[in-house]
């Protein structure tokens, strides 16, 4: 009985301390639903579909509010004006990367995507320089994509117009383009190692978008020690890093300091130049993580967008027909589509943009963190506070995009049928943390979709009216439902 009383008093003190801290914080942080001790607002948020819960909370608390995922306060920015003010107008204040415990456990603050401070600044600057040297945004990388696109066309022909799941097929080109940049070699599409790599990318994207991983990120101190899919994610990434390390060792044996061949060589040369600098961020561990970052981001996001895009084209055959008509008129059948064609193909360009807008691939962006104590819209946000910027609220803004939940390329066309840019188009985020590979991804999406539709008619195995485009999972990412398609040569 005495023990029970002691425990009860301790628990009461903890609750009172929590409520006092919460009351103190409420005077500073934006308003939001009242959290419970330890678990925060988890019972008020559908962790299986966080973007839907955030949309509902925004209707109650406005464009800037606070929610607690477990014990951690997170400030949510909802709508174009709030997101733009943070990521673009006050880019430096919001340039930090917030914590994703399941990823932090693996990467330990290394790499380019999930690092902060000087490590991030130096790595991003270096990576952009190398990617430009490797041809990103230039004709050389376009030629590489076109060559891979023709290989993809041949692979699609081998399906003999039979129903197939396109998930792996549509990953071949993005993965091989990244392999050529990082390792200076491509894989044959039948290569088992290549297929295993792609499978890891698919599985990782699926796992991080599940309810379980959202739960892990809210309660890492508890979930980490339980069985679950997070262990599968750890295993997959360990295998990917093992593969990368083997490639790095091969490069070390044949490295020419005066003649870098690819991303790994550039990094190894940088390591050699800074080998006497004990504070250098260019280390072997950092190299492995940076390559994993670049490889993953450059492969899976484009692959997922392509897979979702083909599903939308199956669902809307009238849209597909208009794209094919534009391809026939501008490109014809005697040559491959190129980036110069895009300015003469406004409808196709609008379709590519609308695919990215509609699928909302990373609904709440990767988390940001404020780099110093700031005042934002009359609220005080302490240094280190996690920030969610709702990209859904921007990409699905009903004033900028009428009927935003409808797939409509007209969202990016003016009354004369010309392509219309939109400041609300932020699938790659914005500001200092905008995706480093945005230019490459845009190029791949346009060239691959036009190559496919130049050579094939897409046929669904079910009535287009019965195709459901609702994401299979909606967590960190929006995962396309599985489907089959027939690629019929034209």
TrEMBL record:
GO terms for molecular function: heme binding; iron ion binding; oxidoreductase activity, acting on paired donors, with incorporation or reduction of molecular oxygen, reduced flavin or flavoprotein as one donor, and incorporation of one atom of oxygen. It comes from the Eukaryota. Heme binds at residue 435. Gene3D superfamilies: Cytochrome P450. PROSITE patterns: CYTOCHROME_P450. This is Cytochrome P450. Residues 1-25 form the signal peptide. It is found in: Endoplasmic reticulum membrane; Microsome membrane. The gene is LOC114496070. GO terms for cellular component: endoplasmic reticulum membrane. It is a peripheral membrane protein. GO terms for biological process: organic acid metabolic process; xenobiotic metabolic process. Belongs to the cytochrome P450 family. It catalyses: an organic molecule + reduced [NADPH--hemoprotein reductase] + O2 = an alcohol + oxidized [NADPH--hemoprotein reductase] + H2O + H(+). Keywords: Endoplasmic reticulum, Heme, Iron, Membrane, Metal-binding, Microsome, Monooxygenase, Oxidoreductase, Signal. Cytochromes P450 are a group of heme-thiolate monooxygenases. In liver microsomes, this enzyme is involved in an NADPH-dependent electron transport pathway. It oxidizes a variety of structurally unrelated compounds, including steroids, fatty acids, and xenobiotics. Its EC number is 1.14.14.1. Its cofactor is heme. Pfam families: p450. PANTHER family: CYTOCHROME P450 2C70, CYTOCHROME P450 508A4-RELATED.
């Amino acid at each position: 009985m005495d023990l029970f009383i002691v425990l009860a008093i301790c628990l009461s003190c903890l609750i009172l301390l929590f409520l006092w801290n919460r009351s103190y914080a409420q005077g500073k942080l934006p308003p939001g639903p009242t959290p419970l001790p330890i678990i925060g607002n988890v019972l008020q948020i559908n962790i299986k579909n966080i973007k839907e819960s955030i949309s509902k909370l925004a209707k109650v608390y406005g464009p800037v509010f606070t929610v607690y995922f477990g014990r951690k306060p997170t400030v949510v920015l909802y709508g174009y004006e709030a997101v733009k003010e943070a990521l673009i107008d006050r880019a430096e204040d919001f340039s930090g990367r917030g914590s994703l415990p399941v990823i932090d456990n693996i990467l330990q603050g290394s790499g380019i995507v999930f690092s902060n401070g000087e490590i991030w600044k130096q790595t991003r600057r270096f990576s952009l320089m190398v990617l430009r040297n490797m041809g990103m945004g230039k004709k050389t990388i376009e030629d590489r994509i076109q060559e891979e696109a023709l290989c993809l066309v041949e692979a699609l022909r081998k399906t003999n117009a039979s129903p197939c799941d396109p998930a792996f097929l549509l990953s071949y080109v993005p993965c091989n383009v990244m392999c050529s940049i990082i390792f200076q070699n491509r894989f044959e599409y039948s290569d088992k190692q290549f297929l295993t790599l792609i499978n890891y990318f698919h599985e990782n994207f699926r796992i991080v978008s599940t309810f379980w991983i959202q739960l892990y990120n809210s309660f890492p101190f508890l979930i980490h020690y339980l069985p679950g899919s997070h262990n599968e994610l750890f295993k997959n990434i360990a295998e990917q890093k093992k593969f990368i390390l083997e490639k790095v060792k091969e490069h070390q044996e044949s490295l020419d300091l005066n003649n870098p061949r690819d991303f790994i060589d550039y990094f190894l040369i940088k390591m050699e130049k800074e080998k006497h600098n004990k504070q250098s961020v260019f280390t072997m561990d950092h190299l492995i993580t940076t390559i994993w970052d670049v490889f993953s981001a450059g492969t899976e996001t484009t692959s997922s967008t392509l897979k979702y895009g083909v599903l939308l084209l199956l669902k809307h055959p009238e849209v597909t027909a208009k794209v094919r008509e534009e391809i026939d008129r501008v490109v014809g059948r005697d040559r491959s589509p190129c980036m110069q064609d895009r300015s003469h193909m406004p409808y196709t360009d609008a379709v590519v943009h609308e695919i990215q807008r509609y699928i909302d691939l990373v609904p709440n962006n990767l988390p940001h963190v404020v780099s110093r104590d700031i005042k934002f819209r009359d609220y005080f946000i302490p240094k280190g506070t996690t920030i969610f910027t709702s990209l859904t609220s921007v990409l699905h803004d009903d004033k900028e995009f009428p009927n935003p939940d409808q797939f409509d390329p007209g969202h990016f066309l003016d009354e004369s049928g010309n392509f219309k840019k939109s400041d609300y188009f932020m699938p790659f985020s914005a500001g200092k943390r905008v995706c480093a590979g945005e230019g490459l991804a845009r190029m791949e999406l346009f060239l691959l979709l036009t190559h496919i539709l130049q050579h094939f008619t897409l046929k669904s195995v079910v009535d287009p009216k019965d195709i459901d485009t609702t994401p299979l999972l909606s967590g960190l990412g929006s995962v396309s439902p599985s489907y089959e398609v027939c690629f019929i040569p034209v």
